[in-house]
Amino acid sequence: MAHRKFLFAFARSRLHRSREDAEDLAQFVMLKAWEHRAAFRPGSNMKAWLFTILRNGHFSQMRRLGVHNPISATIGNEEGDSVVHDMAVPGNQEDAADLRDILEAFSKLPLHQIDSLLLIARGHSYEKIADNVCCAVGTVKSRVARARKTLRKACG
Q1: Where are the domains of the chain?
Q2: What angle separates helix 46-65 from helix 19-35, to the nearest 10 degrees?
Q3: Which of 108, 128, 131, 142 qualifies as a FRET site for 92, CA 20 to 30 Å off?
């Protein structure tokens, strides 16, 4: 349960625009993890394991909905379908590989770095974050800097 907040924040900021959908996905991850808790190897990275469930759950949900590429997803009417189809851009496998690398690197960051990085990405000030987590502004800045450096290094 300690990782639920992080799972929700990631689902909300990266996968779903709807708060409810992000909450549903985070809840799905927790249920799936509980159902398959025997598959978790003690001593391994719990956060990475949960992120794998999150990613796979999201992809499964998109497949069930028939959304293979968010850009080419249908709007639901013939006119909208042709507009979206005309706007579609061919996929690039390198983008998928890059995203996989970023998600993997992201899942390995310490939770305090992830929280700080996500809050900065959402437009919060360093001062506001520092007040909320009861630490110095410099601490928040170094957490964000370390997270960015780790992600850059992991992604080349």
Answers
A1: 1-91, 94-156
A2: 120
A3: 108
Contacts of 156 (CB under 8 A, 6+ apart): none
Q: Return the CATH architecture of domain 1-91.
A: Orthogonal Bundle (1.10)
**CATH fold for domain 94-156:** Arc Repressor Mutant, subunit A (1.10.10)
Residue 73 pLDDT: 41
**Residues 33-74: pLDDT tens digits?**
888 888 888 888 888 888 888 887 777 777 776 655 443 343
**pTM of this prediction exceeds 0.85:** no
Which residue is it, tokens 């042709």? 82
- Share in percent of the chain as helix, strand, coil (round to 5): 75, 0, 25
